[in-house]
Design brief:
It is a single chain. With 248 residues, the chain is mainly beta. The protein has helices at residues 56-68, 77-80, 170-189; strands at residues 5-9, 16-20, 25-27, 34-36, 46-49, 82-108, 115-130, 150-151, 162-163, 195-222, 225-232, 238-241. The longest helix is centred in the C-terminal third of the chain and has 20 residues, at 170-189. It is flat. The two termini are 43 Å apart.
């Protein structure tokens, strides 16, 4: 079923602000004012933008370069593939600047007798969370270039690009970040313990940043099958790419 777009009036300039069902934050494409949809009030967090540096032609060059590199790809992939779709989407992300401390208790079983270990992992993060529900995206592979951010400027977004808004509020983002960091610490713990008995994480929030970043979603055809690439529009780095199976 198609998602129906809705509108509210911008509380800053009065222009119509379009949003889709489930989105909780929207930005006016006429004046750039960011609004909390449920209340119509101003958005209180910093809203930034990462600029897109690739047009369709440059993006195709990135795709061809990726196809020509790496031993796992078919030798004729760049020559015989056809790019059938390339869409630029500005995705919404929250960056959670925080210090995370995980206290743990576990058992190291690689020696005999097993040893009980207790300790803590403390690290600082600029943790990236995609502000969309039920969306598969390689967030951990995406090193978003925060240093290049500018204040959100709707005038710098291409007319042909699609802009998605946040579907997740601050409290949900913090809980997601905590869960993801705890899972990351659990992975780190595999070096020290074989079985975790107890584990708890405390997140000390320092700052939250809301930003839109350009991502290209590219589909290409090779031997009558379709494959997808996800590419950072700021750097041209391939974040995720489907590779046709090759027989050796």
């Amino acid at each position: 079923m198609a998602i129906v777009a809705k509108e509210i009036g911008c509380s800053h300039c009065g222009a119509p602000v379009e949003f889709k069902s489930g989105e909780i934050v929207a930005t006016c494409k006429y004046c750039g004012f960011t609004t909390v949809i449920q209340t119509g009030k101003a958005f209180n967090f910093e809203h930034s933008l990462i600029l897109n540096n690739y047009d369709t032609a440059r993006m195709e060059n990135c795709v061809r370069a990726w196809m020509s590199s790496g031993f796992m790809k078919p030798n004729d992939l760049a020559k015989k593939s056809k790019i059938v779709e390339a869409n630029l989407v500005y995705l919404p992300f929250w960056v959670v600047f925080s210090a995370a401390t995980t206290k743990y208790k576990g058992i190291f079983e690689r020696i005999s007798p097993p040893v009980v270990k207790e300790g803590e992992i403390t690290k600082e993060y600029n943790w990236l969370v995609l502000a969309r529900k039920a969306t598969v995206f390689p967030t951990r592979e995406y090193d978003v270039p925060i240093a290049g951010k500018i204040p959100y400027a709707f005038q710098k977004i291409e007319a042909t690009a699609k802009v998605l808004n946040s579907e997740i509020d601050k409290d949900e983002i913090l809980e997601l970040a905590k869960q993801q960091i705890e899972n990351h610490h659990r992975f780190i713990l595999q070096q020290s313990v074989d079985r975790v008995i107890d584990l708890s994480t405390v997140l000390e929030l320092k700052q939250m940043l809301y930003l839109h970043a350009p991502v290209w979603f590219v589909k290409y055809q090779y031997k009558e099958k379709l494959y997808q690439l996800i590419i950072d529009g700021s750097t041209g780095n391939v974040l995720k790419g489907d590779i046709p199976l090759t027989r050796f």
